[in-house]
Specification:
Shape of chain B: globular
Strand content of chain B: over 45%
Largest sheet of chain A: 7 strands, mixed
Number of strands of chain A: 11
Number of helices of chain A: 0
Radius of gyration of chain A: 14 Å
Largest sheet of chain B: 6 strands, mixed
Order of helices and strands of chain B: EEEEEEEEEEE
Helix content of chain A: under 10%
Strand content of chain A: over 45%
Distance between the termini of chain B: 41 Å
Shape of chain A: globular
Oligomer: heterodimer
Helix content of chain B: under 10%
Number of strands of chain B: 11
Number of helices of chain B: 0
Order of helices and strands of chain A: EEEEEEEEEEE
Distance between the termini of chain A: 37 Å
Structural class of chain B: mainly beta
Chain lengths: 117, 112
């Protein structure tokens, strides 16, 4: 079974703090994604990575950065947290082009609910 | 560019009634389509997917969806709703870069 884990389920931080959200997958997936989920807005892509040390901006990258030093690990960084970054953050992974099994779906972690006060 | 529209942010059905969640997509290439479910305070879980072949796709928990090219639709159905089906459901289409384009989600409410 694919497993995507996220470092925290719930996190409370103060405005201005630097925040690290960690994601680890164990399926040797090339692609990894960070989404933000807010009520009524669905999933919005923040950043994705298709290989180690590679990153691409998604739809809402402002205020965020990412790091991918190892294939299995993808970190989301909030350099200076603000209250409008209070949200649910979801990490996902997938094969780059379906892999040998032509499996195109993304596998999700349980999410981190971040509150910035 | 691809896009996904889910009709209805909330759908309410009685326990035992038919569940129908609507999804329409636009795609310039043959679409790969997905339905995911999210239970409260959890991540998303794949319900079913259409890539090629049979247009009626069966998934987990008794759900199924039919790909209708002429209608650009991929509606999700279940013959008889159960209380445990209460969740948020997301439809997605894969783009040419193997990424998923997401609908806004539909919250399914089950009335006893």
């Amino acid at each position: 079974d694919v497993k995507v884990t996220q470092s925290s389920r719930y996190l409370v931080k103060r405005t201005g703090e630097k925040v690290f959200l960690e994601c680890v997958q164990d399926m040797d997936h090339e692609n990894m994604f960070w989404y933000r989920q807010d009520p009524g807005l669905g999933l919005r892509l923040i950043y994705f990575s298709y290989d180690v040390k590679m990153k691409e901006k998604g739809d809402i990258p402002e205020g965020y950065s990412v790091s991918r030093e190892k294939k299995e690990r993808f970190s989301l960084i909030l350099e200076s947290a603000s209250t409008n970054q209070t949200s649910m953050y979801l990490c996902a992974s997938s094969f780059r082009s379906g892999g040998r099994s032509l499996s195109y779906e993304q596998y999700f972690g349980p999410g981190t609910r971040l509150t910035v006060t | 560019a691809q896009s996904v529209t889910q009709l209805g942010s909330h759908v309410s059905v009685s326990e035992g009634a038919l569940v129908l969640l609507r999804c329409n997509y636009s795609s310039s290439v043959p679409p790969y389509l997905f339905w995911y479910v999210q239970y409260p305070n959890q991540g998303l879980q794949l319900l079913l997917k259409y890539t090629t072949g049979a247009t009626l796709v069966k998934g987990i928990n008794g759900f199924e969806a039919e790909f209708k090219k002429s209608e650009t639709s991929f509606h999700l159905t279940k013959p008889s709703a159960h209380m445990s089906d209460a969740a948020e459901y997301f439809c997605a289409v894969m783009d040419s870069n193997y990424q998923l384009i997401w609908g806004a989600g539909t919250k399914l409410i089950i009335k006893p």
